[in-house]
Amino acid sequence: MTETVSNSAGTRKKGAGLTIERIFSTEGVHPYDEITWERRDVVQTNWKTGETVFEQRGVEFPDFWSANASTIVTTKYFRGAVGTDAREQSLRELIDRVVKTYRQGGEDHDYFATEADAELFERELTWLLVHQYFSFNSPVWFNVGTQSPQQVSACFILSVDDSMDSILNWYKEEGFIFKGGSGAGLNLSRIRSSKELLSSGGTASGPVSFMRGADASAGTIKSGGATRRAAKMVVLDVDHPDIVEFVETKAREEDKIRALRDAGFDMDLGGADITSVQYQNANNSVRVSDEFMRAVEEGGEFALRGRKHGEVIEMVDARELFHKISKAAWECADPGLQYDDTINDWHTNPETGRITASNPCSEYMSLDNSSCNLASLNLLKFLKDDDTFDAQRFADAVRIIITAMDISICFADFPTEAIGQTTVDYRQLGIGYANLGALLMAMGLGYDSDGGRAMAAAITSLMTGTSYARSAELAGVVGPYNGYARNSDAHQRVMRKHQAANDSLRTMHANDMSVHKLATQAWADVIKTGATNGFRNAQASVLAPTGTIGFMMDCDTTGIEPDFSLVKFKKLVGGGSMQIVNQTIPRALKKLGYDEEKIEAIVDYIAEHGHVIDAPGLKTEHYEIFDTAMGARSLKPMGHVRMMAAAQPFLSGAISKTVNLPETATVEEIEEVYLQSWKLGLKATAIYRDNCKVGQPLADGGGKAKKDAADKAAADEAETTKVVEKIVYAPTRKRLPKSRVSRTTSFTVGGAEGYMISGAHEDGQLGEVFLKLGKQGSTLAGVMDAFSIAVSVGLQYGVPLETYVSKFSNLRFEPAGLTDDPDVRMSQSIMDYVFRRLALDYLPFEQRSAMGIYSAEERQRYLETGSYEATSEETGSAAELLAPAPQVEVVEGGRAASAASDVETSAASEAGAKPAPKEAHTSAELLEKITGTAVDSPLCMTCGTKMRPAGSCYVCEGCGSTSGCS
């Protein structure tokens, strides 16, 4: 990586310099002196192997930073060899290393009017960072102020032409970018298809064949020398003759994964044998045009065209091709769609070239051979005590951050000369935010509601409007970006489009009205100042996944995402962990007018069940406020799409987000998501259907099966006889004895009466169930008889009862409501009641408590003692599960703290807090324990815990590792 270009042309002196206003810091007091610091030990363990993967003791952090945030910053961002004097030991060192470099860059390039303004800029930036109001993207923390090249960008877009030199150069450039800890995307549509001829007369290989080499390279190079694999995006235009091969590439590989898994190979993500599968290191997207989407709507034909001369190679049925795209996404989550005409309609630099591709997570879209540095604000920090959003303070923060981001381009290094030149000439920035889901919940606004969308749109408009207004001010001081002159008309046209979108925004309440009013003023400033000065930056904003930096800021939610779940796993500073209810919930309930007694009851219910359905005293019209990405009340797919559509008109780039669909979703539902995303003006859409990928390590069957096969082969070789034996593994039915103990339960659910007869084996294990509903001979009675037989046969063939309970409890349909059973007072359906009752009758306390199923006596015991207190007849492990957290000793600020640390004490006092199950190490694993259902996410390759979705990739809240984005 080399510093490839001089930046002086992009920072010529024009005005008198910026005058910085004091907003956040206190005059005469350094930001570090306003807060309490403490020493902590950071020890990171792989929960899967028990191996200690990192250890650094005595690191220094503010006392209000969580254990999780300090662990992630220490392991990811502190520089220097561990155990040496060169190693950073304090957050102060890290922030000073970065902020002082930014200040020096600003002074060197004449950004500030006086030295006092430079000093105040440093103080304001430091205050915002140490108080977790925002964070730069990961490359800044990795590189700025070190001896390494000063790479500040996380996002790169490359280009490749139809020549072998260009293709090999693509491999090389990607390798350097991956080595530096970043990701890249590019469009392969210039490469001739396999249906076209070469100049020599032979047939071209086509872009898909060249993807193999790039995929192997990405799988070999670990990003930044870490365990995270490289991130990349591959785009192909929908009119490319090889589009069907491209679309189906990863789906066919998924078929291969299934076949190899069934043969006993370890095909989990990170498994020993997964490397034999191709195309797994890139996100694939199809770039679709308005012409194609209209042909899909109308049922017309669409032309696939040659790359050299644009001649028609083949005519295809547009709907059939669209169905193939959606079917492949149904099978393996790839490809996503990028909407080409929408993207280029909002392009500020069309005279320079079209936007053809994006970065790996799809939020940065700009010119070929360009880069973007990112920063994200923590929205929850701007929520005032009266639960209103502090729009003015938010805008003030944006101005400081945009200034810093632009300064970084002055001293940054770039992986290639072409990228360096384009970035200096166009100075693309990507300011964004995190914690939107938590903010809306705390304000009492549903994520999938008109009020929630209006609030999100107003905030996004204010952020981008303020950013461009600041960019215009910077242009008056240090000049507009070098490419502005040739693109000035187009740039100003896009600014007017943003302003028009802001003018058409319909506010819903006083709070978003005040934000919108400030945004309207910001856009007026953009138009006025931009007409005089031009703009310093070709782009200003995106919505990135904010994976690792989201945890650095202690955000509950990443990027534009809703809350993951209502119950969270929280690590404690001195060791141990707690299960707590999301702290925005009590605040939201208070905002909605609930009294303390009702809030406590609702929070306790959420702590037990993981959702709000049937929570005591909670009005059903308030359920939507507490909808989450996962769990019993997970958001509908179009809820995700509509939120993205609300924010998109106010962003320079796009949005990194995946639309989650249940496993039962159909190909037609995916088609509808893609079609509506186009109609609603999104620039890109990615989907993920639960359990569509094999490589989600929810069990260790693949590795174990492979080991068993190896052991058997060794044993066979030792035999002197050469007998070939075929072993077939099949389930064996354990039939019930002729005479068995049975239990008859009469029940009423929502006024509907029924009877359940359950029979058990001699060991007390459930072996059969019969349900009687409706009149004999009726359709309902017949269906229930068939269902009973199916469940009974499954039980006798070894299907665990807890599997049925996890599948059928919380199933919702009529009749539902009150029951006459004191242990199950409310039921969402007859199936919900039946399997909760069976769990209470036949499952041990340890198993059903993990699924949140308790008897009336146990719930009463909890209200009286604060513990469900397993009896002597219940398992000892269940009692252990709910035992108090162990007492620890921790060093804080140089003093010994006996018993539980102060942080542990405060955590235990939080609403809905109790010791976390020993089996849970992240919120994803905790959600699984509470609900009894699997979270479809990969395991972290660093610490072995289950990751959670963040934008279009995954992030580990245990160590901060990501599956591909910074």
UniProtKB/TrEMBL annotation:
GO terms for molecular function: ribonucleoside-diphosphate reductase activity, thioredoxin disulfide as acceptor. Residues 41-132 form the Ribonucleotide reductase class II vitamin B12-dependent N-terminal domain. The keyword Cell membrane does not apply. Keywords: Cobalamin, Cobalt, Disulfide bond, DNA synthesis, Nucleotide-binding, Oxidoreductase. Residues 737-841 form the TSCPD domain. The keyword Nucleotide-binding applies. Its cofactor is adenosylcob(III)alamin. Residues 153-688 form the Ribonucleotide reductase large subunit C-terminal domain. Transmembrane segments: none annotated. Residues 899-922 are annotated as: Disordered. InterPro entries: RdRp_reductase_class-2 (IPR050862), RNR_2_N (IPR013678), RNR_lg_C (IPR000788), RNR_NrdJ/NrdZ (IPR013344), TSCPD_dom (IPR024434). It is an enzyme of class 1 (oxidoreductase). It catalyses: a 2'-deoxyribonucleoside 5'-diphosphate + [thioredoxin]-disulfide + H2O = a ribonucleoside 5'-diphosphate + [thioredoxin]-dithiol. Its EC number is 1.17.4.1. Catalyzes the reduction of ribonucleotides to deoxyribonucleotides. May function to provide a pool of deoxyribonucleotide precursors for DNA repair during oxygen limitation and/or for immediate growth after restoration of oxygen. Belongs to the ribonucleoside diphosphate reductase class-2 family. This is Vitamin B12-dependent ribonucleotide reductase. The lineage of its organism: Bacteria, Bacillati, Actinomycetota, Actinomycetes, Propionibacteriales.
